[in-house]
């Protein structure tokens, strides 16, 4: 009887794990897709040296084929190669900007949560003030002041996306301040700086890392939007936003592949990152751990 019950439970768990929407399937599919994308953006540029200013008008506006799986653009450039180069730029900007914004938000959140009082109120009012302005509008202003460049885009995204990290870290710090181990450290003579570095920061590290991964897709889309508006990479360089912007003219002449290919690459890459982040977020949630146990 016990053996039959155990087998029934095992079969039900296997069925749940193999379901199309289960966390394991989502984790595996996201990892495979993201692994292929990362491998492509690392290997292809090292093997194929793409001349950003190459023009071949004889091969212009060719639809997808075996020679050009994603077709060619209006200047005869291979769309697949440009998508890979552009996605490399977008992922690099997204990762760097996500890390910088999370570090900035973590510092603000730890300082506000640990200090409390007027420091907490002042920093949170600053967060609310910045959050009242749309991210994209503020990012456009920052890039316009600094001048269009890759560095300006990273600074723009970093200065407009640290707010959520600051709020998350502050809430975690406030919940940790009343824990017995923090009270014991303070009673033992530990300074406020030591309590922050030894007891508070290590306990918020999982949430900080999760916030960083969740920020990467948002930063990638933000960089694409700025490049689409002409405030990112130079026009001749491969960028997802630049390619979608250039493809607008080709849509009226039937060149659907020029906008479909970069848009599809962008959506697939960000969905893969979001899928991994979602599984990680569920694993940090105590209510979902039993569903995600292997």
From TrEMBL:
Its main location: membrane. It is a multi-pass membrane protein. The keyword Transmembrane applies. Residues 87-277 form the ABC transmembrane type-1 domain. The chain crosses the membrane at residues 27-48, 91-116, 136-163, 200-221, 256-280. It comes from the Bacteria. It is found in: Cell membrane. The keyword RNA-binding does not apply. PROSITE patterns: ABC_TM1. Keywords: Cell membrane, Membrane, Transmembrane, Transmembrane helix, Transport. It holds the Pfam family BPD_transp_1. Belongs to the binding-protein-dependent transport system permease family. This is Oligopeptide transport system permease protein OppC. It comes from Kibdelosporangium persicum.
